[in-house]
Amino acid sequence: MRHLLNPLDFTVEETDDLLTLAMDIEHNLPKYAHVCDGKKLATLLYEPSTRTRLSFESAMLNLGGSVLGFSSADSSSAAKGESVSDTIRIISCYADIAALRHPKEGAALVAAQKSSIPVINAGDGGHQHPTQTLTDLLTIRSLKGRLDNLTIGLCGDLKFGRTVHSLINAMVRYPNIRFVLISPDELKIPSYIRENVLCANNITFTEVGNLDAAMPLLDILYMTRVQRERFFNEEDYIRLKDSYILNRKKMKLAKDDMFVLHPLPRVNEISVEVDNDPRAAYFKQAQYGVYVRMALIMTLLGVEKPC
What we know:
It contains 11 helices and 9 strands.
């Protein structure tokens, strides 16, 4: 039995195989309609979610399985004080696989240690979000045709953004990856990512405050929102929330084959006028999230690819 707690739980080869399966699912969706007949996915969401919850549910339903679970801690026994470890032991009696989203870092690891079914980390605090990372990798590979030799701009909340942290961890395993880290000083990448991941792997990166100057350099621009829920001080959030707004004028500075990604939800960091630009890939990215989660569920359950 395997779990997915962070992007490095799969080797590069295993990740590439998973992405290849996801791409086959995209182009041959009907043939996967019954591969998980009789299987149940439990979605254990202690934090609000739209894309993560519905994409997991859509993925399992597309595979012929069924879904049970809860969409907030208030609607579960956590409201009565039940621990994550006790909850997962109970859920293991009801389902074949579980997706867990939790505001506390390390919650998914605790669950995996007590679970008798595969656990997928669907986001734990500001720590990791590996299924979003797999979605990002699939999007980049589909749009650019490769996962190497890329300059990737990460813009916005790089301090608390778990999607950013997970993506960096995953991308440093591919050759000739360069990062441009675009953020205000207060939201710079954490030192452990800078030192233990980027520097330790001899990755070329620059930290800048100006988005306009970075635009012409990028193959991928990964925008993020400034997350109100990660701030203890409302004044700091208000001061920083509009640090970067991507608009049509800024897009004119970019390469013709540069693509914009965003894990969503957006607030106002990408103007709606950008949505019609063919380089705006964030809604396509959300669709890829279904395919990659279908592939992941199949892989963790040991389901064979249909002929």
